[in-house]
Write a structure and sequence with these properties.
Blueprint (H helix, E strand, L loop, with lengths): L12 E3 L5 E5 L9 H14 L4 E4 L9 H14 L3 E4 L9 H5 L4 E4 L4 E4 L9 H11 L7 E4 L15 H11 L6 E6 L5 E6 L2 E6 L21 E8 L2 E8 L12 H30 L3 H25 L5 H4 L4 H21 L3 H24 L9 E4 L6 E2 L18 E4 L2
Parallel strand pairs: 1-5, 2-3, 3-4, 6-7, 7-8, 8-10
Antiparallel strand pairs: 2-11, 5-6, 9-10, 11-12, 13-14, 13-15
Helix pairs in contact: 4-5, 6-7, 9-10
Length: 419
Amino acid sequence: MNQNKMKQVQQQITQLSGVHSMGVIGDPGCEGLGTYNMKVYAAALEACSGDDITLIAGDLVPAGTGHYYRTIRDMTQVLAGNDVYTLRGNHDTGAYSDYFGLKNYALLTEHFAVIVLDNAFRTFEDEGLLLLSEVLARDDVQQAILAFHIPVPNHFILNCVSEEEFTRLKEAYGPWKEKVKYLLCGHVHSRFVDETDGIPLICTGGGGAMIEDVSKDIRACDVEHHVVHFYEEDGKLLYRISDLSENGYARERKDPVLKQKLEETVQGELMAHLKYLMFADRAKRRGMEHIANLFRALAASEYYHARNFYAVLEHPPVFTESVGTYVPGEEFEYERLYRMLGEYAGEHQSPLAEQAYAAASAAEREHASLLKKAQDMEQFEQKTVYVCPICGNVMTGEAPQRCPVCGGPQRQYEVFEAE
């Protein structure tokens, strides 16, 4: 393990040699450091490994305790392909400085400066504003990125610092405004590019946290997890935004032994999930609701374990194209596999297995039909889906009084209602 990948900044001004580019990752850890979210962060680190340095634009952790800071630090040092610098977000409280050093500092490269300012509590510190003025006044600084966590006022969101705080920032950089090429922030779990005070504002929060709606024009379904690359070209500081492939991180999948063990672990966790749910049903039928509730909770826990292990292995298609990829599997099950296995069960005097395959086959046919309709995700408008908990049959439209497959009563259907 390279102990120097994640930097603990000790000097307010650090001169870096051989740096022509910087990758930026926003908000990797504010929603937790579970495997499901950290897979995105791992892909972001890999995407930034081609840059000379990486900057995390705040919210490394969900809460500022040593446990979380050590977790993100140790993971970063294993996965990072270059030196990683950080700035403090509103979740990065407590022991932040013990692990990452100064909250206000500047990195000076041959072609540009990165000035990191702490505004985690929605105010810019006097120390940071003084540093900003000092760095911009230098003759060897001609292009600068001002990086902070919470956005300044803009045209997209109200979740930003006050106009008064922005005025303090503008007063600090005002005499050298022409040197400020970009304002860079995180905090918002999406991305947008705006212009404020005549300077491009790049907001990026796509490095791990779940993408959220920003406005009617910037919806979660239109934004992917992403990183931002800043780079020097012909003496000019430019940037580009790169979406992260959901297959961007694949280290564990490449280890055949670990891949097999992970697959076995997923199967074991899902089996435990099913066993606990079935026992919860039995307990509920006997009036033991407290026991049933416990086992439903345990079943949920096992599902999330399975999801995390599977997330390490998952090799998903592009989201916008993914719905249709599930159709062939459903068609194969009801057209061939379940029919064949049902016939085998019937021939071998196994009526319960025969019945289960027949019921599942009917449901898979409806699955395929609904998935075909859902391939056009923007136009799919089916808001209510009913599932018979007895046989698993899926129904839409007006719910029948009895399940057409097994005869289960309508009062037992599970109802799935879109918001």
